[in-house]
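R.M. (postdoc): so does anyone remember the format we settled on? I'll just put the structure tokens first.
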């Protein structure tokens, strides 16, 4: 079902998207439509905290009644010079209950070993915020995206009288003389998002009893980590449709809010790896939970209280004196919180290079101030997109170019990307500050080493 929220030029307003979301909510019980998943391949600058963002509020309402919402992360992962940028996750991708999707470049091959996170794919953390009465900004700083999927130079259906094709005829695949059967090529996280949405539909077809939180956990638990990319770039890893659907089939169909904590989640025990196209895909074995990565087999073997409707995956944790701990009323003892989020080596979450503690990885280097990263990229400050017209125009152009051109897929580029990834991992393994920790009561590691009097970073309440 297509609810048209954008015009023929791909432009819309918050009000038109809200109208579409309101229609979904109003028709939620209509058996003719049977709406179980919503795809949002759109977004705008995330300025207000998700708690006050009307798009996020409307989406939370849908998730709380059992509808899975999948949204694109955005195409603002680099500047016009190609330099890596952190902190530009779109709204509503900054909403905790959403499945937020980034893009990978497959380099046009079926093999996965050469996959890389697309250079344009927006990276976390979320920088939406609220400002208190004292003028202090409190950032959401959520780890996003949740996972990544193929989104570079994908071929799909083309609408007749397509304005984008008229301006960019090279995108036309010319597969048919019938304009209703034509196809075109596009790139971006908006292309990757429907790949995940389609997987969710298959999961719900296999097991209609799944709650949105079980779906989201399963997508991340079965994801395959992309070597040498951190969690703010790839989330839990690359979409693994085979694993996600197989896990969905194995989960009990009689679960409800009355199911006790620690009860068996599975009706059968699936293997925790997949075999696809001759490759063994190891599952990540964990999930993103707002400000950390939590893991353990009991995420899929035992029922966790935060799988209920009206909960968030982040309800698995509590904050105590600046440290994240497990909420024992929500999780079983076998669910563990990562001591530090890693650059994945592509195999297991327990392997790889530890960069920072407290569950949020900022870069392949060390954060030295609010908005400056060593060796890896730049953390964008809040308000840049609305306070600086030149910056806004630059990122709009970067996003548009990502949509039209995507990343290079040539074999030379793929080989160079693999070498850069290996070199980066080796360099950071020897970085003298790679294990430097930032702590302090109520301060996340996004705060400056010397916080200013007018700006600091703080973990917001989850609800």
């Amino acid at each position: 079902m297509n609810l048209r929220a954008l015009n023929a030029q791909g432009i819309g307003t918050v009000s038109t998207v809200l109208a579409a979301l309101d229609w979904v909510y109003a028709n939620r019980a209509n058996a003719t439509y049977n709406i179980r998943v919503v795809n949002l391949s759109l977004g705008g600058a995330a300025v207000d905290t998700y708690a006050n963002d009307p798009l996020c509020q409307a989406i939370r309402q849908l998730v709380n009644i059992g509808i899975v919402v999948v949204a694109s992360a955005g195409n603002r992962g680099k500047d016009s010079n190609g330099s890596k940028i952190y902190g530009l996750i779109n709204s509503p991708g900054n909403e905790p209950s959403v499945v937020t999707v980034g893009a990978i470049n497959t380099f046009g091959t079926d093999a996965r070993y050469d996959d890389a996170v697309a250079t344009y794919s927006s990276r976390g953390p979320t920088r939406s915020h609220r400002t208190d009465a004292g003028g202090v900004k409190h950032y959401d700083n959520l780890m996003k995206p949740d996972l990544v999927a193929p989104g570079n130079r994908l071929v799909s259906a083309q609408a007749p009288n397509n304005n984008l094709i008229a301006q960019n005829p090279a995108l036309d695949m010319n597969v048919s003389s019938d304009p209703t059967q034509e196809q075109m090529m596009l790139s971006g996280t908006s292309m990757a998002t429907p790949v995940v949405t389609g997987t969710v539909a298959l999961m719900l077809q296999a097991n209609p009893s799944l709650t949105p939180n079980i779906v989201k956990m399963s997508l991340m638990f079965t994801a395959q980590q992309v070597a040498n990319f951190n969690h703010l770039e790839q989330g839990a890893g690359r979409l693994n449709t085979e694993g996600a659907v197989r896990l969905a089939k194995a989960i009990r169909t009689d679960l409800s809010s009355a199911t006790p904590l620690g009860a068996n989640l599975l009706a059968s025990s699936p293997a925790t790896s997949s075999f696809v196209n001759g490759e063994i895909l190891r599952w990540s074995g964990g999930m993103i939970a707002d400000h950390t990565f939590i893991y353990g087999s009991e995420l899929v073997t035992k029922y966790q209280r935060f799988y209920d409707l009206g909960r968030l995956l982040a309800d698995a944790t509590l904050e105590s004196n600046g440290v994240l701990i497990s909420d024992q009323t929500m999780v079983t003892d076998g669910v563990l919180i990562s001591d530090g989020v890693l650059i994945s080596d592509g195999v297991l979450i327990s392997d790889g290079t530890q960069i920072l503690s407290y569950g949020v990885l900022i870069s392949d280097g060390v954060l030295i101030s609010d908005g400056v990263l060593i060796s890896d990229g730049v953390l964008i400050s809040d308000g840049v997109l609305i306070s600086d017209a030149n910056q806004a125009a630059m990122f709009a152009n970067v996003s548009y170019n990502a949509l039209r051109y995507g990343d290079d897929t040539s074999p030379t580029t793929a080989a160079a990307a693999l070498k850069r990834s290996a070199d980066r991992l080796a360099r950071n393994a020897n970085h003298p500050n790679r294990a430097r920790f930032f702590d302090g009561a109520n301060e996340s590691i996004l705060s400056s080493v010397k916080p200013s009097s007018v700006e600091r970073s703080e973990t917001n309440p989850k609800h």
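R.M.: ...and that's the designed sequence above, right after the tokens. Also worth knowing: The radius of gyration is 21 Å. The domain at 36-152+187-429 is CATH 3.40.50 (Rossmann fold).
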